[in-house]
Amino acid sequence: MVERIATAVGTPNIALVKYWGKRDASLNLPANSSFSLTLDENLRTTTSVMFSDSLAEDSLFVDGEKQDLNDSKNEKSAFAGKVVNILRDMAGVRSKALIASRNTFPKSAGFASSASGGAALAVAASGALGLNLDTRHLSVIARQISGSACRSVCGGFVVWHAGEKDDGSDSYAESIAPASYWPEVIDIMAMISSTKKKVSSSQGHALTPKTSDLYKARPATAEEHVRMVVDAIAKKDFGAVAEVTMKDSNSMHAVMLDSFPPIIYLNDASRAVIYAIHELNESEGSPIAAYTFDAGPNAHIITLKQHKDKVISTLREIVGDNMLVAGIGDGPRLLGENESLIRDGARL
Ligand code: DP6
């Protein structure tokens, strides 16, 4: 019996310039480039993949719960199945796959478990199949599970190039600097709600370009924001990074609100965080912190280590102690056998 198995750990990323709207939904090709920070292993997904002749079907378990790989309502599981097929074809392998994945943080809470999960799955499955793929190729694979997952394949400061080709081969993520380039940068996450969002990001990606007039300006704005943030990172100009980060989050949430029916992810506590960060920056005389929100109410505050205590005490007034802190990370890596979630051919 041939058994191939590998385990990888992946981490979320936080976009400072957002991906919202696709030019191709089946390949997750974005309407614009985006920019993110890959977070460290304070938040992580561990995924083991086994290909074995003894398996009768493909199966996927996330946090111990079986997912339906053919459920079109659960797009990310369906995309995970598609990606396993692509990799299997590349390796010329026919055996079925058992995939087991565990997160250290709440799913569907706007903390992007699909990004860390997609990156971990791409790395573990290609590792198990002995495919020696470079980071660019791995990001193209991970992108097809969840667009933002392609950015989590790279460590540090990451650009996802939108690309132009119909087959998506030029839509990939690339690290412009490693985590060690600016290790003072941190993400303080204020947990406002962990309930599942009403509109999934995949639904929103489709609705906004179709119904929002404001969205017409969004792709060019985002491309400009990517150029600005890359320039600000190169100069380590935190004030400029902070300004473009806040503006880009506001721009994305504006086109979400302009969708019809409107998509509203921010709530009163999210807005309280926005006001509090502007007040903090004003009292400091220059921006020391930036808020950014994904498809949910939870706030990510990008700041520098030296301002951590000030930011935490500002946020505590709104969310109490419901905070997580992550630094910048190096991207996914393969783990040893003793960290596998599959042993003796079965899920642990
Ligand atoms: C708001 O990557 O979750 O977090 O490609 O449909 O899986 P799919 O969407 P997803 O969208 C993330 C959107 C965002 C912004 C961002 O991370 O760039």
The general outline is globular
Number of helices: 9
CATH fold topology of the largest domain: Ribosomal Protein S5, domain 2
How would you state the average pLDDT, rounded? 94
Can you summarize the main beta sheet? 6 strands, mixed
What oligomerization state is this entry in? single chain
* CATH classification class of the largest domain: Alpha Beta
Bound molecules: ligand DP6
Percent strand: 15-25%
- CATH level-two architecture of the largest domain: 2-Layer Sandwich
Helix content class: 25-40%
Give helix and strand order, one letter per element, not per position: EEEEEEEEHEHHHEEEHHHHEEHEEEE
SS-derived structural category:
alpha+beta
Radius of gyration: 20 Å
Name some characteristics of this structure.
Alpha-Beta Plaits, 9 helices, single chain, Ribosomal Protein S5, domain 2, 4-stranded antiparallel beta sheet, 2 domains, alpha+beta, globular, 35% helix, binds ligand DP6, 348 residues
